[in-house]
Automatic annotation (TrEMBL):
Lineage of origin: Bacteria, Bacillati, Actinomycetota, Actinomycetes, Micrococcales
Keyword flag Phosphoprotein: yes
PROSITE patterns referenced in this protein's UniProt entry, alphabetically: FHA_DOMAIN
Protein name: FHA domain-containing protein
Keyword list, A-Z: Phosphoprotein
A Pfam family of this chain: FhaA_N
FHA domain mapped to chain residues: 146-195
Alphabetized SMART domains for the sequence: FHA
Keyword field contains Cell wall biogenesis/degradation: no
Domain of life of the native organism: Bacteria
Amino acid sequence: MGLLDSFEKGLERAVNSAFAKTFRSGLQPVEIASALRSELDKKAAIVTRDRVLAPNSFTVRVSPADAERMDALGSALRTELDEIVRAHAAKQGYSFPGPVSIALRTDPDVATGTLGVDSVMAEGRVDWRAVVEIAGRRHPLERARTVIGRGSDADITIPDPGTSRRHVEVLWDGERAMVRDLGSTNGSKLDGRPVKQAALANGQVITIGRTDIVFRLVPSAAPPQRVPRHEAATELYDFRGGDR
């Protein structure tokens, strides 16, 4: 299975049927993935026999109409694009000089159905942030203590009658995370096992009622510093009839 096939399947999982109607015309998400993959291949530079350096900071410029369509996907699209860039780089043996950064920007000079890609090799620092993913939506953990339950007084409210009003809390200090059951009626599980209190690792699943809550650590790149010896590269992709 090719990388773009994998991307399409991943995107299918992230986008519900309501979003599908959005993409009947104009730019398609898979075309952005294709352009980023092409950008990596075109701009990869051999540094030594064992190291091929590739751009890691991308700005994807799209038309206002296409930007509105892409905004419907929220963070799901950016997550998929980040994964496809990393997977392609790993397959090709490319190295990055810093964290991967992909930004989508509205550009009125770009025609509908086309996109522009600006790429640069940039150094930077990776900061990690914690999120919980519920029904495909990510909720950043912006405080040290986040309460989850069906009550309106919970920090994250879920419409699950099998949960308590204040069911569990997730603690995050910027480096470590913990889940704690708040004396719920039906209890909580961590990776399928009953839990009262436990440390959380990336990708673990908390289950309350019929709701799965995935704890994730996601990279948040600090503003990158451009590597002086490499020039920025700009490409314009027209999916209505080839590159231009």
